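Q: I'm writing a short explainer about NADPH:quinone reductase for a general audience and would like to include a description of its predicted shape. Could you first generate the structure from this sequence?
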Amino acid sequence: MPQAIRFHQTGSPDVLQWESVELAAPGVGDAQVRHHAVGLNYIDTYHRSGLYPVPLPSGLGLEGAGVVVAVGEGVTNVAPGDRVAYAGGPLGAYAEVRNIPAHRLVTLPEAISFEQGAAMMLQGLTAQYLLRRTYRVQAGDTILIHAAAGGVGLIACQWAKALGATVIGTVGSDEKAALARVHGCDHPIVYTRENFVERVKQITAGEGVPVVYDSIGKDTFMNSLDCLRPLGMMVLFGAASGPVPPFDLGLLAAKGSLYVTRPGIATYIAKREDLVAMAAELFDIVGSGKVKIEINQRYALKDAAQAHRDLEARRTTGSTILLP
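A: Of course. Here's the predicted structure. Afterward I'll give you a sentence or two in plain language.
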């Protein structure tokens, strides 16, 4: 029987269990994928902790890459033997083998390894929609990216730089500042000792930035609003420090008629044609060498609990993968 990570109650990483699971033949519209690598993402900790509730017991993980081993009735977009990758669910990527709706799979180019595919799909597609659709970054823009040395951050910094933007990024240490800098971040700000609002104002000569990309949430949200120029856009796409408390929307008018959005990848990739187009753009920019996928941590899949501990303790940089 194949093995998978499951959890029967929400809580700390200790709730994650390595279990044998029954796996039926793929049903109508499904494909069975044997994973070669699985992606680790911060949203996985939200599902595990209960911040984003899911029916229990549950599998975990939204991203993986591997080979199709079987397909169900009606599947035409993939076939056994195809190299594929996916992101965005349904939950269950932390598994040696799984069934998944075939329309969620994209063919992985030969030039991209399984490890790269697992490391880049969710984070890379997130960077794609943030930079190309939520707020379309233009050459000459100066933008702010929080957690610039994280998985999404390193991809977004490189991609924004390739688009001709000037990139400001917040990081937690000098080591992470150096990492962000070599990945396209022009102005890394070590938030543990620098006031990032003051630094952004200095860098932009008091003007502020047109967009802030914020995956931190509670600890950065209000100060991020003060980094925006009039009519700027606050893009809150995560809550690593906790959810943002309710606030008076009148503040948005007072601070310059600001926009706030809370995007999620599921909406952007809901239509298959959008998923395919976004993945193609991601594969193209990675294939061009303008965006490099940094896999800085690898764990055995059965050790997912330790990977979660390290992720939540901010001991990771770039992308992390789990290996079945």
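A: For your explainer, you could say: The chain has a mean pLDDT of 96.
Q: Perfect, that's easy to follow.
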